[in-house]
Design brief:
Elements lengths: L2 H19 L6 H25 L5 H12 L5 E3 H7 L4 H13 L3 E5 L7 E5 L1 H21 L5 H20 L1
Antiparallel strand pairs: 1-3, 2-3
Helix pairs in contact: 1-2, 2-6, 3-6
């Protein structure tokens, strides 16, 4: 059995055990959240392989990618960066310290708001993220190859709907 098959069987076993021990409870949400958690762990491990080849981790990649996709002049305030990137606000400062130390970003005071800090992607940072991005995209395609284009689209829509409902909670 493949690793993915073992993971799914593991979740199904947990649900079956709960159904046996507590038949009065509908534990079907555990199947969804267990599968999501296990898939996420495996996905993160696989995505990290492309990041490591470029001396990055997922959070650093996300900061650099967010700055690059913001377009010229590749600058955002730290607050904008936190809202646009897929990392927590507490992680932003740590990531920025490391990235600035490597010369990949530069921080400066925002000219319009003295309380805000601008973060700018440096030439070195642009070169690194531009080299890492194609590997990341190819890795993503590889990881999703078991799904048809329609399944990928359906999954993305379902996860977006779930995320929207969770944010409304």
């Amino acid at each position: 059995m493949s690793s993915a098959g073992q993971q799914a069987a593991g979740v199904d076993l947990i649900v079956a055990q709960w159904a046996r021990e507590r038949p009065d409870l509908d534990v079907s949400p555990m199947r969804v959240f267990g599968a999501l958690a296990r898939a996420n762990r495996l996905m993160e491990q696989q995505l990290d392989t492309a990041f490591v080849r470029h001396g990055l981790d997922s959070g650093s990649f996300d900061v650099l990618a967010t700055l690059l996709r913001s377009g010229p002049p590749y600058r955002l305030t730290a607050g904008q960066l936190q809202r646009s990137a897929m990392i927590t606000s507490s992680a932003v400062a740590q990531r920025l310290n490391r990235l600035e130390g490597r010369g990949l970003v530069a921080r400066s005071q925002n000219v319009d708001d003295a309380r805000a800090t601008d973060v700018t992607l440096t030439q070195q940072g642009r070169a690194l993220i531009s080299a890492a991005l194609p590997d990341h995209v190819a890795n993503g395609h590889r990881l999703l190859q078991a799904l048809s284009p329609q399944q990928r689209s359906d999954l993305a829509e379902l996860l977006a709907a779930l995320t929207t409902s969770l944010q409304a909670e």
